[in-house]
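Worked Example 4.2. Consider the chain below.
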Amino acid sequence: MKLNSVLTFLFIVLLTACKGGAYDLSAYGLKPDTGENASPLIAKALQEIAAESSSDTIRILLPTGRYDFYPSGSTEREYFISNHDQDNPKQVGLAFENMKNVVFDGQGSELVFHGRMLPVSLVNSENCTLKNFGIDFENPHISQVKVLENDTVGGMITYEVAPWVEYEIRDSNFVAKGEGWEHVPAWGIAFEGDTKRLVYTTSDIGVGSKHVAEIAPRKILAPWKNKKLIPGTVVVFRGYGRPTPGIFVYHDTNTTLENIQVHYAEGMGLLAQMSENITLDKFSVCLRGKEDPRYFTTQADATHFSGCKGLIRSVGGLYEGMMDDAINVHGTYLKVQKRIDDKTLVGEYMHGQSYGFEWGRPGDAVQFIDSKTMEILGEQNTVTAIEAVDKPDDHGAKQFRITFGNPIDPAISEAGTYGIENLEWTPEVYFAGNMIRNNRARGSLFSTPKKTVVEKNVFDHTSGTAILLCGDCNGWFETGACHDVLIRNNRFINSLTNMFQFTNAIISIYPEIPDLKDQKKYFHSGIVIENNEFETFDMPILYAKSVDGLVFRNNVIKQNHDYPAFHWNNHRFFFQRVINEEIEDNRFDGGFDEAKDILMDD
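Applying the procedure from the previous section yields the following structure tokens:
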């Protein structure tokens, strides 16, 4: 081909790729439904497009179809991701980095990943939208089996392994495996075969993965005693690693995720940290519909927001089958490890899955908390300087030297147990019109001092608490107190079929306070619960601890007999250190003696 012809050909390709402000990824060699590795092609395309991004909005179009992504040729990155395993490097399928005013439209495509990968990252970007695609893995790291026979006397269970699961019997162990990974599962979750709901009062169970024998192709005989696992029960064998979410968002402003379905991820469905203004519009963590043979989605939360600000808006989503909450919103306390002078402290990330990312910036407002009583000490202060102590910068850091504008309360030092809370990186939350069902643990978790509205959602067999308001400076070190929460017009259907952490009632206001008896102040405040409908087989509706200002009004409670009542909390309302509470104008099917069903434990 002559030089002029080559130049003409390249010009036509470039013109086609970017016609009308839109990049058609087929011009970069991406073709659907081939089964070929799309990782190197998408990596090159996104890198080139990022270099050309401008103030004008551009669209990146992926022709409709299935695309397979393998670790080989993918983008390699070192990311420290909140609430995940901090192992690096990570292989990224689609790395959207340093993008501005970009709309990526998958046009209904399915992105299928192999091995152990981070499917999508959006980092250091502004005014970006990702939409219209699904995320799944060819061979999930959760193994699914079906109980065929249960000899409850002899303690032996025969189960059948789902057809897509890769495994081998090695040294009498059931070894789940895939491309670049393997493990012997120890724990699992049991689902009803016909409804895909968690089996009543099973919670986390040990599984029959050791001393097993394969008695026929994909049929395993295992010493495994659990009388609740009747034939037809489906059990998912879990690993407890959570290396990556489905989508990772970091240092972004004005992000929209629209009409995206995460069918599986080894960590969260979505993890966003240190980002401002995030909109989820019909973002779902869900099965592939009624015909999907799988019973599970993500290994952990569906969506998780750590140290974000602005507005988190999540509407119209379906969240099902995940191993934790549909949404979790919080910041992270640093523990005070050293007092250098009256204006300078060293603070440290304490949890092994939450460190290595930016915590704060000069100008941020902060407050200090005694982790034993969860009481605020001294006045709010302002960060004037912050630098990593154990790393050159915040990337990978655990400790930070922080200088404040005003003197710090003299009591705050390494001699006690004190936390530092960043008040700047706390968001408003609007969580509405979502369906949350058939998941492990809890339905939703909110820990932010700014306005939080939870309305028009359906919480259907969430298995644990449907809504949790927490706060913890002792374990996960997740901030903080809620001061403006409105929970209205939601429907709760048979929550609390199982016991997990913080599951004291359908709505549980449960900060971790080791020394409640010595607490003088109150942690949460300004909580209104109104116009909701509760359908329940048990008693506990609302548990609250350390609250000043709690309203429960105009709600309807319908008692059913779908399951036997079992919960240790046999009161509708159980309050510990709660003042200025109002319980009024509620309707209870089957009669209600309000005085009897309120337990005040001060």
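Residues 1-20 have pLDDT under 50 and may be disordered. The radius of gyration is 25 Å. Compare this with Example 4.1 before moving on.
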